[in-house]
Model the fold of this input.
Amino acid sequence: MALHLYNTLTREIQPFETIAPQRVKMYCCGVTVYDYCHLGHARTCLVWDVTRRYLQWLGYQVYYVQNFTDIDDKILRRARQEGTTMEAVAERFIAAYFTDMARLGVSSADAYPRATHYLDGIKRLVAQLEAKGFAYASDGDVYYSVQKFTAYGKLSGRRLEDLQAGERNTTEALKQDTYDFALWKGAKPGEPAWDSPWGRGRPGWHIECSAMVKEALGETIDLHVGGADLVFPHHENEIAQSEAATGKPLANYWLHNGMVMVNGEKMSKSLGNFITIRDLLDRPVDPMAVRLFILQTQYRKPIDFNDQAIEAATNGWKTLREALLFGSEYGPRLGFAASSVQISNAYTEQFRRAVDDDLNFPAGLAVVFELAKELRRDRNLLIHEGQAATPISTLAEKWQTLAQLAEVLGFKANPVAPDQPIDQLSDEAIQQAVSDRQAARQAKNFQQADQIRQYLTSQGVTIIDSPDGTTRWHRS
Done:
């Protein structure tokens, strides 16, 4: 069975066919950088990280782009609250993003475009839409005319006649129709603004991604992914903008991951159940247990976070980790080395058949845990009886197969010295944390800077601030 994916656009599971042979252009709607990343961001980033890993394992060359929205009302409100600038807020939380994702083991994207870096492309796209009659200027703003795009609603299934218009406010008075949306917003006093053919202002949210996809990946891409909350209006509006401008499909496949619940309720700050990634990992919870918790649920379904679920995932990770360490613990004693070990085609084919069915990572995990439990059984026999029940060549094959499949899913378990913390940070993660701290200090958020220092100290890392403003670090 070849890879099949559920396409939100067609509402069907379809065989995956790329535009160019064995090449994938993939775009993920990233975060708006006004606060720390939460569990919803963790799920989105982990699911599409593993999707990318899986495609690469299948032999595809994947070019993966994930954007940052660094122009937004929420960022501006945060800047005003803190008495700083929108740029300073964005830089601080972009640094925090990289720290959090490094702790979770999320691989870096190939590119991280930001709205502020693509303003020329945004303005070109707005001008193109205006020239084609899909956009109109109104008192310094520019709006997209939804009525002009006859296919509007094809992603979400919504119809214009079903979109109820509420009371018209001052902004809506500038629109031809209530459901038209802003491509460019005229400058308001005290807000950041950039020059444009329509006057000084800033881009609307939806146009940012359309421009970044076009500039970074081209007019049509293979995969456009993100959280289910983005289907409407964000992704619907992206389609309307991009396809009106180019006359071509924006993406051939649209994939969306389900939402995160907390104890059966929607996660929100107002309910007091809002959990950031760093809050969770600082409990502490093992990052690999978080990865396991997320991958145990089919990616399109909602997932419920609670203490029992994360405890079960922690116990599951302990089982998997023991099996992953089998080779380093017993390989030399049993006489096999990783470089000389073959993998089991039977298990890898079973794994592939499972995951090829719309990225069924839970079924793929079942294969991984079957291997892990078999290795754990023989590990216990080696500990208590001095020999395993399975032939050495078979043990080596199973361990190497487990290691490869776990790597596809992003699980890592490095051998640990007796006096070394189990989850020792990588050099990359440390450097990101140091950058995160420097951004906090520049923003005069000294409480956050001290928290980062304390976290690094707890992980066995000492940081040294030099009089010239540079920071060095070393492992204690």
